[in-house]
Write a structure and sequence with these properties.
Blueprint (H helix, E strand, L loop, with lengths): L1 H14 L10 H22 L3 E9 L6 E12 L3 E3 L5 H6 L3 H22 L7 E6 L1 H5 L3 H12 L6 E6 H6 L1 H13 L3 E5 L2
Length: 195
């Protein structure tokens, strides 16, 4: 029993990242069971299109008008309601689902940007900022897929800004540098997220 509790505490510590420590308590077992259920729900959520993209406006401080939008993933869970990224993105990374979710958000955000460009913003272009995970960065076909979606939706490439977190850029500096150079050469903007 002691060994099982130690393993449970070890898994709990590992879920919080390297060099983390966790003490066993009875709630951990309940929490782990809840996490297993939530991970199973997340796998089904992708197939059921429960991951939604919400758009947060980004305002210009000079003109006080909407300058762009940031695409944000939200999970419309059937029983828990609308879940914020902090409640499922870490789990998606651990379960190997983050690339699939990231690609879905990318496609939906670019599609929406195409609609807005055709209908609403012809005279005043706005941009769409889209977060990219480290898994997407490491995928050699990422730029091809991004460029294909932009072309298919007829979006002006300069209206797309790819957000790379500071931690990802610092963890993979050479890969980030190469990606940034390629994005810029395609006319796509780059932003540093969580700086």
């Amino acid at each position: 029993e002691l060994q099982q509790q130690a393993e449970t505490a070890l898994h709990e510590a590992q879920s919080h990242g390297p060099r983390s420590v966790a003490e066993f308590h009875e709630d951990i077992d309940d929490q782990r069971a809840d996490n297993v259920t939530l991970e199973s729900d997340l796998r089904r959520a992708i197939d059921r299109h429960e991951i939604e993209v919400h758009y947060q406006p980004i305002m210009s401080l000079l003109s006080r008008e909407v300058a762009g939008f940031e695409a944000l993933a939200r999970w419309k869970h059937p029983t828990r309601g609308l879940l914020q990224p902090s409640e499922f993105i870490g789990m998606a990374e651990q379960a190997g689902l983050i690339r699939e979710i990231g690609d879905m958000v990318l496609v939906e955000a670019v599609r929406q940007m195409g609609i807005w460009q055709r209908v609403l913003t012809r005279n005043r272009p706005v941009f769409m900022a889209i977060n990219v995970s480290s898994d997407q960065l490491s995928d050699t076909s990422f730029l091809y897929r991004l460029n294909s979606v932009i072309a298919r939706e007829g979006v002006l490439s300069y209206a797309i800004k790819i957000e790379i977190t500071e931690s990802v850029a610092m963890r993979y500096p050479e890969r980030a540098r190469q990606l940034i150079q390629r994005l810029i050469s395609l006319g796509i903007g780059v932003a540093c997220d969580d700086f």
